[in-house]
Design a protein that fits this description.
The chain is α/β, with parallel strands linked by helices. It is built from eleven helices and eleven strands. The chain has three domains: 68 residues, Winged helix-like DNA-binding domain superfamily/Winged helix DNA-binding domain (Arc Repressor Mutant, subunit A, Orthogonal Bundle), CATH 1.10.10.10; 92 residues, D-Maltodextrin-Binding Protein, domain 2 (3-Layer(aba) Sandwich), CATH 3.40.190.10; 105 residues, Periplasmic binding protein-like II (D-Maltodextrin-Binding Protein, domain 2, 3-Layer(aba) Sandwich). This is HTH-type transcriptional regulator CbbR.
């Protein structure tokens, strides 16, 4: 028997909670145990392994390399238990389970409606959403932290299987009072002298904008102001701070209400697509399989539609 054969799920969860909360007291509260009980559990694990799992610092308890290894193993065990539970329930015909979905921030405007539609068909399957920018969602896929992800462009750094489920138009928006609002067939050169409100590096929208602008990125008369969220950008554009390049799906409500307008600019809208993505080397739980199938077959009905944008772009 190795030193680790006796490790229990309870002990692994103790390490996970200490790492999450940074203190024994907070971890004990989360676990429903006393502080001394959690301290004893940690001492037993560290004694068996012959290595400290945490550094005790003024800012709380921080994982050592050995601690990181134990926490990662604990996460793998938890995922295996969830998959086992889903499989058993599927065999029993209970239709229960869980799915953890990564969602890029641009998709958060329709993702809740999509989940509601899914829950109507699968009320016993729990859905957890984790929202982040593209870089963060790709990292979640890389770390096996999510079962699948909704994003605008499948990553090339992770072995994935991807399926298209809808159009994803990208547009330039402005306040209705902006000088460019209402003009027709604008050239990209009209952006000279403008203030362009942009997402942070790592955002898929930022990458698409940079590709669209091309040489204009070096135009010294264009002032770029960076924001960390679509919501802040929308409010800044409405207030007249500048214009912005965003997904049409993030501004559907504001355009319909007349608070924002889509500029009629050459090369826009850019027609991208929405994908639901999963790791090709990760087993699929029944809950995740049901969600993937739902998104592929019904996802498009939860997307805002902008037929007028496409008519203008095609010259109809």
């Amino acid at each position: 028997m190795s030193d680790m054969d006796w490790l229990t799920l309870r002990q692994l969860r103790a390490v996970t909670e200490i790492a999450r909360h940074g203190t024994i007291a907070s971890a004990a509260k989360a676990l429903g145990l006393t502080g001394p009980a959690v301290t004893l559990t940690l001492k037993q694990i560290e004694s068996a392994l012959g290595l400290p799992l945490f550094d005790r610092t003024a800012h709380g308890m921080r994982l050592t390399d050995a601690g990181e290894a134990v926490r990662n193993t604990a996460a793998e065990v938890e995922r295996s238990i969830f998959r086992l539970s889903d499989t058993i329930n599927e065999v029993k015909g209970l239709g229960t389970g869980a799915v953890h979905v990564g969602v890029v921030s641009t998709a958060k405007y329709y993702a809740p409606a999509l989940v509601v539609g899914f829950k109507h068909e699968h009320p016993m399957i729990d859905v957890r959403l984790t929202v982040g920018n593209r870089q963060e969602v790709v990292q979640a896929l890389t770390d096996f932290d999510v079962d699948c992800a909704i994003m605008g462009r499948p990553p090339k750094t992770v072995p994935v299987e991807a399926a298209v489920f809808g159009d994803h138009p990208l547009i330039m928006i402005a306040s209705p009072a902006h000088r460019l609002a209402g003009q027709i067939d604008l050239s990209r050169n009209e952006l000279s002298g403008e203030t362009l409100l942009v997402r942070e590096p790592g955002s898929g929208t930022r990458t698409s904008m940079e590709i669209y602008l091309g040489d204009l990125l070096a135009d010294p008369s264009i002032h770029f102001v960076e924001f960390g969220s679509n919501e802040t950008i929308k409010q800044a554009v409405i207030a007249g701070l500048g214009i912005a390049f965003l997904s049409a799906h993030t501004v559907a409500v504001e355009i319909a209400a007349g608070r924002l307008v889509a500029l009629d600019m050459e090369g826009l809208p850019i027609r991208r697509q929405w994908f639901v993505v999963r790791r090709g080397d990760k087993s699929v739980s029944p809950g995740a399989r049901a969600f993937l199938q739902f998104v592929v077959h019904a996802g498009t009905q939860f997307l805002p539609h902008f037929p007028k944008l496409y008519e203008e772009a095609s010259g109809e």
